[in-house]
Amino acid sequence: MPDDKARFPDPASPDPLPHAPRVQWLKPLISRANIHVGDYSYYDDPIAPERFETDNVLYHFDHVGDLLRIGRFCALATGTTFIMNGANHKTNGISTFPFPIFGADWERHMALLHDNPSRGDTVLGHDVWCGYQSLIMPGVTIGHGAVVASRSVVTADVPPFAIVAGNPARIVKMRFSPEESARLLALAWWDWPIEQISRFIPLIMEGSITALEDAAAQMEVRTS
């Protein structure tokens, strides 16, 4: 019997496809404490996928305190970019210019920037697909199973299993009915042990929700 490392892709190795170095698991590439990525999420970039946290997560300053959370099994196409809350400027005064950050005598006014606006953490759920050059704005939550079309600008929360497109991104289609979406969220297949996910890949990719529910019931019987 082969060990698990031989049976399943290794999420700790950044190169899941040795023949295609443009595709890399994200989690092993992340060194910053304010970015959290789940297993088996990948970024595809023909130039430098390993530079994701510096080139694709912008204005993410430690003192702001916001987090970027990316779930498991997310697929991020080339150019997917996250704008974080450090990009925000104050708009309640006469000027939006951030004078104090440029130092010299202006630095004594740094306290004026302490209440810069923040929309909180940016969150991608599990099994989210972001298309080519999609842009995610600060504080947005994109629900599980959602799809973001190429070159969309996501400025507001996206519900689970929605397909959004445009600037600003709008819902163009729901992948499932409300009842089906609720069933899939209850199944939460992305949280299953990798052994069970691997066993039921045909159902996860092409099966019916009922069949996947039956598979989940089998798992419960085996573990009870």
What is the gist of this entry?
The protein has 224 residues and is of the alpha/beta class. Helix content is 20%, strand content 18%. The strands form three sheets. It has a seven-stranded mixed beta sheet, with no helix packed on it. It has a four-stranded parallel beta sheet with strand order 2-5-8-11, with no helix packed on it. Strands 4-7-10-13 form a four-stranded parallel beta sheet.
Question: How does this model look, in words?
Answer:
Belongs to the transferase hexapeptide repeat family. This is Vat family streptogramin A O-acetyltransferase. Keywords: Acyltransferase, Antibiotic resistance, Repeat, Transferase. GO terms for molecular function: acyltransferase activity. The relative contact order is 0.10. With 224 residues, the protein is α/β, with parallel strands linked by helices. Helix 3 runs parallel beside helix 6. It has six helices and 15 strands. It has a seven-stranded mixed β-sheet, with no helix packed on it. A four-stranded parallel β-sheet has the order 2-5-8-11, with no helix packed on it. The longest helix has 15 residues, at 209-223. The mean pLDDT is 91. Helix content is 20%, strand content 18%. The chain has helices at residues 4-7, 52-55, 178-187, 194-199, 201-206, 209-223; strands at 23-25, 35-37, 42-44, 57-58, 68-70, 75-76, 81-83, 122-124, 129-130, 135-136, 141-142, 147-148, 153-154, 162-165, 170-174. The chain has one domain (4-176): UDP N-Acetylglucosamine Acyltransferase, domain 1.
